[in-house]
Design a protein that fits this description.
- By secondary structure, the protein is of the alpha+beta class.
- It contains 4 helices and 9 strands.
- The strands form 3 sheets. Strands 6-9-8-7 form a 4-stranded antiparallel β-sheet, covered by helices on one side. The protein has a 3-stranded antiparallel β-sheet with strand order 3-4-5, with no helix packed on it.
- Strand 7 and strand 8 form a beta hairpin.
Length: about 190
């Protein structure tokens, strides 16, 4: 933190519990840093609303069927309405002539890139976060155990989010919950 100019304050265990009473009794010291939390859902919505204010058109329930690439740039996108669900009969395909293209397809980013003839190097991971009732916590708390994978507790409304586990996967649709992930989160929270 010091090398990056981030201010810190070293607290002993008692001082840390004064600041965050939900800390375990065996916490002997804590380092405070300026921190914050971003609500990713609200951020996404705010970005979408902002782009509309600047003239963008947002199409929901629209699957990219093809991208037309001319002179190294996407000149058109062919999109299909999928509001009837994946099993619905194919709807008409519309052509969109974009000024700009942003590939924000999440786990499908590789599929969309391939439609433009690109093959970016991607590494897929799946992660787990656990929501628990802990309404008294009001500070983001992180620890870095010997495993090197940090344990973080983030207050979020009336709950606290514990996370995050991460494991590599070859399948971007691999979103199954593993008991080991939940166990690791609970164990990390216990210290």
């Amino acid at each position: 933190c010091e090398d990056l100019g981030i201010p810190t304050d070293l607290l002993d265990g008692e001082g840390a519990r004064d600041r965050e009473p939900t800390l375990a009794d065996d916490v002997s010291a804590a380092l405070t840093v300026p921190d914050g939390v971003v609500d990713s859902h609200r951020l996404c919505l705010a970005n979408a609303l902002s782009t509309v204010e600047y003239g963008a058109t947002i199409r929901t329930n629209a699957a990219v069927v093809a991208l037309v690439v001319e002179e190294g740039a996407v000149s058109a996108a062919r999109v299909r309405d999928v509001s009837g669900g994946a099993d619905a009969p194919p709807a008409n395909v519309d052509t969109v002539d974009p000024d700009y293209v942003v590939n924000a397809a999440g786990h499908a980013v590789g599929d969309i890139a391939a439609k433009a003839g690109l093959d970016p190097p991607l590494e897929y991971t799946t992660a787990a976060t656990l929501a628990v009732e802990l309404a008294d916590q009001d500070t983001v708390v992180s620890s870095v155990p010997e495993t090197g994978q940090g344990d973080t507790a983030v207050p979020y409304g009336a709950a606290t989010l514990l996370g995050t586990t991460k494991r590599a996967t070859d399948d971007p649709d691999d979103v199954r919950r593993e008991a080991a992930d939940v166990d690791a989160l609970v164990e990390g929270a216990r210290g």
